[in-house]
Write a structure and sequence with these properties.
single chain, alpha/beta, five-stranded mixed beta sheet, 12 helices
Amino acid sequence: MKRILILWMALCLSVAAVAQHVPTTATDSGCPLDSLPPLSKKERKQLKENLDSYIDLWKTIGSEGSNPKVTFKDIDDKRIVADVEYQSTNSTPDQTPNFVQWQRVWALFVASHQGIGLNDIFDMVARLGMNAVVHVVLKTQQNEATSIDASIIAYDNATLRRIIALENYTQAYIYADMLATRQQLPLQIDDSLFVTAVSYCNHLYTLHMHSTAADDPTVSSQFFWMISNKWFIANNTFLPYLGQDSTTLRIVGSIEGNHDTVVLDYRPAQLLGQEPAIDVDLAGQYLAMALGRECPQPLDDSTGVWTHCSYDPTLKVVVMHYTVDELSILSNQGKEQQLKPMLLEHLIYADGAEFLGLLASSEVGLELRWQSRTTARKFTITFTADELINYMFEEE
């Protein structure tokens, strides 16, 4: 079966700035923007007068905030200019796409949301079809010396409207991650796994992933992505921010040589670890179906037959059914705990380690049910998912 893949996409949040000019374009938006409503001459004039009065008030008050400090710089018919100045003890410039995009989004978000009236000012600028420029100044202190890094970041009207519409820092963080990921597409995650597209719109964060590994016809594509995504979610430090934003994660998966596309959605509670990030019952059904293809099989000791497999949704276990002679059941009754480690070792010896790993990864247990071929006598041994996880961990 395909190996389980783990995806790490943590955002870097070290505080630094790089001297640069960063243009922005409407294509950066996470989802379509409504067209600006047309303004009559009277409406435009009134809106411009309101904007001028707010600007005058901003000039009178002076800088808003302390760290960062937001200061009015200039305005004309095409754009507004503001300074954003902040101080940091971190003096190491960070040029990674994640940080550059975070700074880009953060600078305008702070400028438009900090202080009384700034949101109204930038909203009026956006409604007038104007652009924005933010001059970001980072001051860092090393001993008695002060180091200054600066960035001039330009925003077109579409990007301006997109960023000022963000409701909080969490949404700004998510939006910045989307922009950074887009810059790196196709983003290679593993030898055979790539992120090919990403979007963030109306509390839906969508990742398109493509696997170039050879397709395994014995494994359902949906099951492959269920397992891969489960580990992706469990090991990713960024995705909980989606949960905090009440955002759903959608993963669209495709595999080389397979025309099927799998779409799986994950609720905020799953991203926050409050619910399993896998459909346990569906995974159990897939596993039982795959294992059942090996049946029927005679047992090595000629005492019976492995007849079939099933999934028990109440116990959350894949069940292996056996029909054996009466003596085999009588000789083993009362020895369930003693036989457990021996049976697991036998399964691993018989090339069942990968299957046990898939059971554990799917949070599904295993049950072995022996039925006498001559009477109603039964014998059952059950391994919970936790027992399988603990056993596999100890074996490693």
